[in-house]
Amino acid sequence: MSVFFRRSAGAAIAYAVATQGAWADLTANDVWSDWKAYMGGMGYSISGGESTSGNVTTVSDMTMAMAIPDAEASFELIMPEVTFTENGDGTVAIGMPEQFPVSVNIAAEGEDPVKVVLDYTLTNMVMVVSGTPTDMTYTYSVEKNAVSLASIEAEGETVPEGAVDVSFVLDALAGTSQMKIGDTMRDIAQSMTAGNVTYDIAFDDPESDDAGNFSGSVADVSYTGSGSIPNEINAADYSAFLNSGFKFDGAFSYKSGNGAMQGSGDGDQFAMSSKSTGGDFRFAMDSNHLLYDLSQSGAEISVTVSELPFPIDLKMAKSGFKLDMPIQAGDAPQPFAFGMNLTDFTMSDMIWGMFDPAGALPRDPATVALDTSGTAKVLVDFLDPAVAETLEKTGAAPGELNTLKINELLVSLVGAKLAGTGDFEFDNSNLEAFDGMPAPSGVANLEISGANALIDKLIAMGFVSDQDAMGARMMMGLLAVPGDAPDTLKSTIEINKQGHIVANGQRIK
Questions:
Q1: Rounded to the nearest 5°, which phi and psi values hold at 101?
Q2: What span, in angstroms and rounded, lies between the C-alpha atoms of 480 and 488?
Q3: What's the Cα-to-Cα distance from 340 to each of 27, 318, 375, 423, 426, rounded to whole Å?
Q4: The whole model's pTM is what?
Q5: CB-count exposure of residue 153 (10 Å: 0-12, 13-18, 19+)
Q6: Residue 364 gets which letter from DSSP?
Q7: How far is it, in rounded angstroms, from Cα 298 to Cα 129?
Q8: What CA–CA distance (Å, rounded) separates 164 from 201?
Q9: What's 286's DSSP letter?
Q10: 425-449 pLDDT, tens digit each
Q11: What H or E segment, with its residue span, contains residue 10?
């Protein structure tokens, strides 16, 4: 995980604020002091002029800044005034300016410096902190939370107004965040909802006809997450950070979404629109594993390009991707999982007509699904930037596959269907039996339906010759036996530890 990601996440959490906790005495200085300790531990420098009048502590020109070495950049946020008001009931209200600038300076070696200034807007924000100095609970609501591009300076000049526009808006934002501060770690639990999230990115090159726009929105957004981070992070010691007890698990979901993209250049035009009925995204990480789990439902996509006289229309009832992988080197095998699915995928008749104008092939919704799990020995620390650079240069293997279980394999399209499961072990000391790959041993069970009917249709369409079809049928006859229903085949493929391959009891290697 890059330094930029860790520290940027820290900046976001600084504004995340939390549920009403136990009523206890909490002072303005307690909250402000924890801000300084928290952000300082994340690698930021934080400063401002402090003054107290009655029950209000005011921080003038509060500045948060940090260098981002791995991105050759720096970050600075300036709030003209932040107030911490003791409410008299053991809680503290936080007031922030409605708008303040955020600057990002990029000075890559050998390149002209670039300065990007963003306007950050908080409309009708209410934020209250309760609890104790070691267990603070924030509660917040914001009518509108927006980020927009104010200016870009590159090559010593300001990019003309309208050349690049960026805006990102969350409305009806509300949430909670609890922070428990220990001697070495900080435990964080958060929840958040937003009515809508909208985005709009556009560019128009004044020196050419290149232009583009990308916009969209998602509705009824929710987020829950929890984690633990060290109070002091040493960006230069990747291993210490990962083994400090750091962990994070967060999930986003939304009920509906839509997007649109248009572009033009060199006389060509491009447009795309999409919508969905909802989706989920989960990200989790600790010292041993990294997890991505994404899903989307009711997706519809339409693409228009200059080269085609009709739009490319696609639909799918469900799609998903999952990756759970070990990230630290170890002597023992570690578990992993990978999965993906495209469920009930369809495309418009105009696309079908390009290669099947007579409608010979069944146009039923297609499904492709794969679900696997297994174990692998990890030889390197995957997320260490130095290790990644070494692997890229040397081409060395990052790990060894030990076991692989195919929980589900499904391919169903154009009237044919392949389904299967499997369970294999791999001998990494034997790279000769299977041409350089670790020798597998195990069993796969497969079922095929509609294969012969599909081959007949492909012959009639001229896509497959009689000779090629004969070879395919001979191969199926060698590897499979007839199933229980017409035009079905089934097969049990076994690979033993001697390297023999047996299909349905018959040795073929």
A1: -90, 150
A2: 10
A3: 50, 10, 18, 18, 23
A4: 0.86
A5: middle
A6: P
A7: 40
A8: 8
A9: -
A10: 999 999 988 988 999 999 999 999 9
A11: helix 3-15
